[in-house]
Structure formats: structure tokens, C-alpha cells
Amino acid sequence: xxxxxxxxxxxxxxxxxxxxxxxxxxxxxxxxxxxxxxxxxxxxxxxxxxxxxxxxxxxxxxxxxxxxxxxxxxxxxxxxxxxxxxxxxxxxxxxxxxxxxxxxxxxxxxxxxxxxxxxxxxxxxxxxxxxxxxxxxxxxxxxxxxxxxxxxxxxxxxxxxxxxxxxxxxxxxxxxxxxxxxxxxxxxxxxxxxxxxxxxxxxxxxxxxxxxxxxxxxxxxxxxxxxxxxxxxxxxxxxxxxxxxxxxxxxxxxxxxxxxxxxxxxxxxxxxxxxxxxxxxxxxxxxxxxxxxxxxxxxxxxx
Amino acid sequence: xxxxxxxxxxxxxxxxxxxxxxxxxxxxxxxxxxxxxxxxxxxxxxxxxxxxxxxxxxxxxxxxxxxxxxxxxxxxxxxxxxxxxxxxxxxxxxxxxxxxxxxxxxxxxxxxxxxxxxxxxxxxxxxxxxxxxxxxxxxxxxxxxxxxxxxxxxxxxxxxxxxxxxxxxxxxxxxxxxxxxxxxxxxxxxxxxxxxxxxxxxxxxxxxxxxxxxxxxxxxxxxxxxxxxxxxxxxxxxxxxxxxxxxxxxxxxxxxxxxxxxxxxxxxxxxxxxxxxxxxxxxxxxxxxxxxxxxxxxxxxxxxxxxxxxxxxxxxxxxxxxxxxxxxxxxxxxxxxxxxxxxxxxxxxxxxxxxxxxxxxxxxxxxxxxxxxxxxxxxxxxxxxxxxxxxxxxxxxxxxxxxxxxxxxxxxxxxxxxxxxxxxxxxxxxxxxxxxxxxx
Lengths: 303, 440
Hints:
The complex is a heterodimer of chains A (about 300) and B (about 450). With about 300 residues, chain A is an all-alpha fold. Chain A has one domain: Ammonium transporter fold (Orthogonal Bundle). Chain A is about 60% helix and about 0% strand. Chain B folds into 2 domains: about 1-25 and about 110-360, Rossmann fold (3-Layer(aba) Sandwich), CATH 3.40.50; about 370-440, no CATH class. In chain B, the strands form 4 sheets. Chain B has a 6-stranded mixed β-sheet with strand order 1-14-13-17-15-16. In chain B, a hairpin with a 7-residue loop joins strand 13 and strand 14. Chain B is globular. The termini of chain B are far apart. Chains A and B meet through helix 1 of A and strand 15, strand 16, helix 10, helix 13 and helix 14 of B.
């Protein structure tokens, strides 16, 4: 035996096989049904938007890491997720240069400027979308379905036009690439909850509070559940590990809070849709939530 | 009967197949034994023998007047070669008595049956257990007689025997329960009598059906003793987890199981106690699982205390290849060793040999706040916070976040997808807080 080759380290000496990049690529896998639905409803244009968005995200990550002299970690899948998620929040009519700009902002200002993976307070894809929505409001709300200009169900309802549940559920409606098919989003979400890569308390809290809140205020709860970006936001963005609480009670409050903000914006706000800001606003509360929802340790005596 | 457990925890691969069906076998009698004078938590013993002196098997060779301590005994008959300083498995310098065995195993005169259990008083039992040098053999090595000394004002109600053996790879408790179930029960009865309780439990994880069967047969007809089936989950064998699972009671932070009326000990310890009462033989040998992918023939060996690890590894067929890591104890809480120049001590439950390709590379990535450590911690702590507070020397926060309530099970490091050494940080943080409390 060669003693030089013996490793001496602190316990434990075995580790679970799951790695960060495994979790990230699983999220990418979970987004495949939503991507397929986007391709189905919005054809080649959706393909281009997704490709450009992923390319822009990964490239920005690479440039920042190179410039900062850090290890290049583009293969960990986290920038790919941001690219796909951002693309799924964009309208099918958006010019591709705007997609590229949005993805650069998402990764650059949303993630790398804070120090990269793990350090960003806001969900990067939502930062990208918030920027585009503020800077290019017209191009961000130009909806199209089956080759014709249309409006989203949340726009239509303000004019008294309803959309039937089935169209909402499978996604045959006007809207962003990924906010259309609730079915595809749920499929991926179930997979992630099964794998334990997202915490069910957040989507359940968010969807549940939207359901109850809209019911209380005389709205159609099912409509609000399936309309707009709620499913996409609740399943894939509010659950972003980096920007959501680490305690169980914190996750409940985070999810429920986000759901309530969604409904406040939808019912009384200037925007027809509130998912984006609901999650960004709740992101700001995460350090506080973690601090005040520390679980009682086993046998802890309150002092 | 339902399967009991605690909340949270983790599910590492059990890896017990390699050795679980290998009967306990006597290891070859060593030529030389090295017996440390400190094989327990507490004060070190003083040697009672001198260089050149002849000692007999079972003879007490080290003792002290300190209460929290346990004497040590010669595990062979022979001649004291020297008393020297060695490193124990935790890396601490301890004095050890080296005995050259004469291969005759001449018994010390003092050794003989200690009388019928029914005639023994609790005080006598505690004294016998102390004199036999018995400590917690699951790995903690806490002197058993100290656990059995119930302070004024505490009212014990139950005795729990730990047969969970939740550490992966280890199978000695499993084999003891299959091969010596009557002695496990006898040991439990001795322990129950020592603290004056009428009810005892034996907690066994679900993945040991043979042990559960044997123990259930052995307790049949014993009033007040029950086998409890536990979920296979780590760290099910932790004292606090066992009590939570079996009695749904929470040991107060900083307190002892006695605070909730319970004393816990391990099944192998119970058998050592049975031996000490029935034959009068003190703790001079123990069973050790030698396993892992790096060893040729995994075995469960009954070894004399003081046998060199190197000798035992040879008896398990030697290394498959150049080993990557050698761990004393289980893979979750055991201690990695820099070399093999070490004796088996009372707490050595296993020797794990890992191949070099099984050793994780040290490349921790940024924390992504996945909270798997928070969701896995059996003590409901926030390991990610504790590790960060240690890293940034935020000691007030460390205390506020209950760092001292950590049981060092290692679940957080195990489950971390970024492979951060959370447990290592928390251990450092704990010792820092304890040191500060001492000087304050």
C-alpha cells in the first residue's frame, strides 16, 4: 500500500450522486414538453426565438466568466435554463435582435453581475423579461395565433370576451411561447416534483392562492389558473432554487404571497398580467423570509 | 405493527450485502496487542502494569479514579513489552500498553460468573459494568456505567437498545442479533434492572428482517420487552432519532435522553454486558465489520482489542488494489486514517476500505440554495447557514441557529449537490463555540 495515495478527509466519506448540473439539466428536460408545445403552436418562429435566447444566454455567461477570469461553467445547464425560460415568456412576433438583447440582460444584469450561479437575488429570466417589457412595451405585447393577430385571454377578458377551458388547458390561445399550454407545463412540473428538484409548496401555494383569491373576488378561478404566465411562473420561475426560500414555512409564504400579488395586479393593476412582478417582488423578500422562518430545531427550548 | 421513524433524514445506499451473511468468526490470535489507555469519552486511565510484567487474559491493566472513564484489560496473556504514545483513530495522542502474547490465553484469576441476575442489585450491576470496562460500542465509546448512574430527580421509564445499525456497510450489530439474540435480551434485562425500569425496546431497521425475526423470537414471553421495526433511514440509530421514532419524545437541546426518561445503548454493548455478567469476562474483544469495495473478502471478525488494523485487513483477503481511503467506523461518521498502524479499540465497529475511484474529488461549487441540507437535517437545523456563519466567523449567528444541537451525522454534506463540505464547517463552528463558552 502506498500511503501517499491514501486520502484523509472529514466525514462523511460517501456522497449522494446528484450534482448541480444534473439538477439543471433535469429542469431543461422538464421544459421539453413546453418547448414542443411552443413549436407546435408557433412553428418555426418559436424555434428561432428559443435558439437565439439560449445562444445569447450561454454566450453572455461565457463572456462574463472569461472577463472575470473565472472557471467557465456554461456546461452546467443553468444558462440554458435561463435562455429557454426567457424565450417562453416572449411573444412569437418578437424580433430576434430583441431576444438576443433580452438574454444578454438576463444573464448579465440578472445573474453574472451578482457573482454568477447561486448569488443572484432575482430570477435571471424574469430580469430579462422585465427589462424588455419596460423598454419595448409594444413589441412585447404583439400577439399572434394561427397566422393572425390576436390578443391574450387576459386581454380579452377585460373586454368581456371569454376563452374556453379546453383551449386554455392545451394552449391553443394567444400569448407568449410558453404561457399557452398548461398541460405541457404541468407534465414537466410533475417530473420535477417527483425528482425532488422543485419544492411543491411554492407552486401549490401560488396556484392555490390565485384560485382562492379569484374565487373570493367573484372571478372565474379556473380561468385565472390557466391564463397568462401563471403556470410557467409558478412551476419554473418561482421555484428557482437560488431565488426562493430554503425553509418550508418560507416557501409557503413565498408561494402564497406571489399568488396574491398576481391577483392584485390582474384585478386592479395597470397590467393585464402580474406573474412577472409577483415573483420579482417576492424574490426581494427571500432573505427576510429565511431569517424569520427558521425551523424549530429538534428539542430546542425557546429562550 | 407499523414501521416507525423520525422526520427528515437521508437514504444512502446501505451496501450491507457484502458482509451481512458472513457469520461472526474469530480473528487469528495476534502476536502483539496495543491497548490504548483511553478508549472512551472521559479521563484517560493510568497504567497498572510495568514494562516486563506478565499479564493474564482479562486482567485489568489500566484504571483511574475519575467517574467518567472505564478501565482497560489485557486481551491476551503475555508480557508487557512497553508503554508508548500512539495516535488514536481520531488523531489524538494517547498512551498505550503493548503486550507480547504468549499464545496460551491464561485467564486472570478474577474472572468467573458474577451470579444470578435476580440476586444482583442495581449498584452491583453498575459496578460490574464499570469493572468490565464497558463503553458504548456503536462508536461513541461513552462509558456505560455513567449512563446508568441516574442523577437525583430524573425518573427513567424506558431502556432502548439500538439495533438500527443505520451506517452503511456495517453489519456487526446485525450479526450479533442473529447469532446471539438471547444474550442481547439478557443484556437488556441487566440494563433495565440497573436503572430500574420495567419496559425495554429493541429498535431495528426494516432492512434487517432476519434480525427482526430472531429478536422477536427471543423476546417472546419476556414481559415488558418489545422489538420495534424502524424505517431504513439515516441516521435512524442516532439516540435522539430512536427516541423520537419509538416514543415520539424530543430530547431537549443540550440535554440527555434521561431528561425524557430514556437510556439508550447499542445491541453489541448489551452482549458485552451479558458476557461480563455470565462469564465475568471484561471487554477484551469485539466484532468488527471489514468491508468495502477495496477489500477482497468482506468479513465480520471477532477481534481482540488492540489487534492491529493491518493484520485484520490481511485476514479479510487484503486489498483489491491500491486503496483510496481507509475509514474506521462507518462511511457517514467514521474517521479516515493516514496509515494502518492502529489498534482496534472498543468503539471500532468497522474498517471500510474504499477504492481510489470511489473517492470524491474536492471541487465544491457555489451553493444554489436548493435546501436539500435543510430538508434532510434530522435535527431541523439550517446546515447551509451554519456552514456560512462558520466560514465568516459569525459566532453569534451560529449560536442563535443552534449549532450545538448538531449531532454531526453528516447528512448535509452527503446530500449537497454542490459537494460543499458542510459538515466539516459545522464541526469547526461547533468546536469554536464550545471553546468560547469555556473561556467566557
